[in-house]
Structure formats: structure tokens, C-alpha cells
Amino acid sequence: MTETLIPTTVVGSYPQPDWLVDHVMLKAHIVPRTRLKAVWRVAEPFLEQAQDDATLLAIRDMERAGIDIITDGEIRRESYSNRFATALEGIDIDNPGIVKTSGGVDTPAPRVVGRIRRTGPVEVRDVEFLRRNSDRTIKATLPGPFTMARQAMNDFYRDFDEMVMDYAVVLNEEAHALQAAGADVIQLDDPWLRTDPQAALRIAVPAINRALQGLSVTTAVHLCFGYAAVVNNKPSGYAFLPELADSVAQQISIEAAQPKLDLGILADLSSKQIILGVIDLGEAKVETPDEVAARLRAALRYVPAARLIAAPDCGMKYLPRDRAYQKLAALAAGAAIVRKELTQNE
Fold it and tell me: Domain containing 52 — which CATH number?
């Protein structure tokens, strides 16, 4: 991990170029749970090469903006979850099921027809590519076990919790492979924890702990209220958050800028590093560095600087690329302001 005070990071995704992805189709399908191969504008024989080229653009944008902990931008993914979730044994990808989104909309979803198993690497090449092409601290992201279970139609398991734990097992196998490939940070994206807090209370922490078991790199869990392009009205508090203090994850990543989160809740996570969303992705206006700095100062009332990491609220997938870059540059500049203030006061 970087030793920088209040380092900056991204949550995961970065905008895919228009020449690579049909953004109109992507937005029309909300956040796809099953494969959406028609969204790619490059023919299959050339797609991997095109995705590599677009990934390099994302890496260089993040570096140029001054971000300390970067990802590959999730450029090869149709959504944050579907690439991994549909690569597992036990999933009938040809005959998907239907699951309601957190907003109550019926959407195609992976249909579980057998025991969930990992048959081989899914994101290992992605991490190897990122490691070869950047000397920054790098983060790999995976969909969380609870979220994948909630996004699937269960036609096999008698017990929801058993399915969640099998997802955790395959995530752990993949996470160890990503660690070996060079990832410095491994993050589970588990936004659906807040949609069913009773079930989350029962199984979320054991599943997260199983998914992260035995890892020696830094680990994180990300929660949010949904992409700003999809969800406009967001609550000012999480239905499930303090409970993550009992997880083995060292970092908790939360959305705070757009929902104007009551930061007092951070006191319940005193053992964790906090990846705090201080960039509002629902606002077209680009924050000034001073606005970012003010949000970070507000967080410092509850979290010491040594445990604070600055980030956008969520993935930046649905933003125009120029706006995403400008917001990341403001993030880096705002963190630098506060960092300078803190070091001058020592």
C-alpha cells in the first residue's frame, strides 16, 4: 500500500470509450446481470486487443489525474458483477432467470442450476496486464458474495445462506489468484447488503470473511446506493454498515457525497480504514479542489487522517470520460490541499 497520507483511489470502473461500447444500449439495460455481448462495438476477433487499448487509456488517465491507488477501470466488463458471476460452473447462462432489482424492476439474472464452482481464472489476466503497465499501487475488484447471491435466481440450493457461502468459496479462490498476479488491494463490491439487512445480519460477515480468508494483501468491501445514472434519490444512511466492523476487511468503502451521508456513522468503524466517497457522480458540475478538501475536513472530525482514503462515491462507468478525468483531478488536488495542511500543522 502507498504510504501517502490520505491517498486517493477509484472505487473500480472508469468510462469505456464510445468506440468500444454502445453506451445507449448499456444504459438501456440498467446494470446487466447476465452477459450483454451486443454492447461491444468491436468484433469478437479484435475485442480483446481493443479492450487492452482502452484499458491503457484508463490507466494513463488515472495516473495523469494523480490517483495513488488505481484499477484497470473494469474496461473489459459489461457490469461490475456479470463477468465474474457468469463465468462459474453451476450457472445456466443460456437460460437466465428473472430477479427484481433493488428498485423493484424485473431483470434477467444468472440462474443457478448446480453447485457453484470456479473452473479457472476469470480476472487474472486483467491484473497481470495492469501490473505490467503501471508502477502504482493497484486494486482488483470482485462482486461480493451476498450481492451475487441476491442477483441470481436460485433453482438449486435449498438454503440461501449455503449459496452465499459457495459464492464466497469461489471468490476466495479467485482472490488468491489475483494476489499472486500482483494485486496490492482486493475489494469486494457488495452493495446489496443494504437491500436486505436482516439476511445480511445473518450471513454477510461470515461470507465476506470466507471470501477474504488467508489473503496477505490489503482487503476492502465497497457499499453504495447504486450508480448515480440509475439511482437519483438516495438515503442519508446505510441500513447495514456498522456490522462490517466485525469483518476481516481492512478497508470499508462507502458513498458519502451524493447522499450527503451523516459521517457520524464512521465512528462505528473505528478499527477500519475508510475509503470515503467525496466526489458526487450524480452532479454534472466538476467539484473544485476546495470543495473536495472541505468534504475531507468534515470526515476528519470522525476519522484520523491515517485511516482516511479519498475516492469517488462509486464506479465512474456511466460518466463522460472527460468529466470523469476532471473529477479525478479535482479529487487528487483536494486531497493534496488537506495533506499539506496536516503536514504543516505537525
Answer: 3.20.20.210
